[in-house]
Design brief:
This protein is of the alpha/beta class. The chain has five helices and seven strands.
């Protein structure tokens, strides 16, 4: 098990991270891992519509998204974030939606179940990479 809480320097440095997940225990696990790494959680959003509303109202820095939510697949959220240059990690138990995979062929997904702390470390790496490119 990975523990980030005892690190001297927070990984996420108060970054606002969108969590879109409709399974309550997974959402809580991811949210706690983000907070343990020094991030701030936007959500968790249990639906695509909730996630889109958060994107419209908050300065999201990155996101961890479940591919399938209560009201459909995450494609509209992922597309909006990708087009804005915001790094995302997708979690799935069934793979990427075909339209999303076709539009963004380099997009990767993490297969559930996965360790939330490991997702956060991957996300921090993506955030750092995006910042270095700017």
């Amino acid at each position: 098990m990975l523990f980030i809480r005892h690190r001297n320097i927070p990984l996420l440095n108060h970054a606002l991270i969108l969590v879109a997940e409709d399974e309550p225990f997974i959402a809580l696990d991811v949210a706690l891992a983000i907070e343990d790494a020094g991030g701030v959680v936007a959500g968790p959003a249990a639906s695509v519509s909730e996630a889109l509303a958060l994107i419209d109202t908050l300065p999201i820095v990155a996101a961890i998204l479940d591919v399938n939510l209560a009201d459909g697949d995450i494609s509209p959220v992922a597309e909006r974030l990708i087009n804005a240059g915001i790094p995302i990690i997708l979690q799935t138990g069934i793979g990427l939606p075909s339209k999303l995979a076709a539009r963004f062929p380099d997009l990767k997904a993490v297969i559930k179940p996965c360790v939330a702390a490991a997702l956060v470390i991957q996300l921090e790496t993506l955030i750092a990479s995006c910042r270095a490119e700017k």
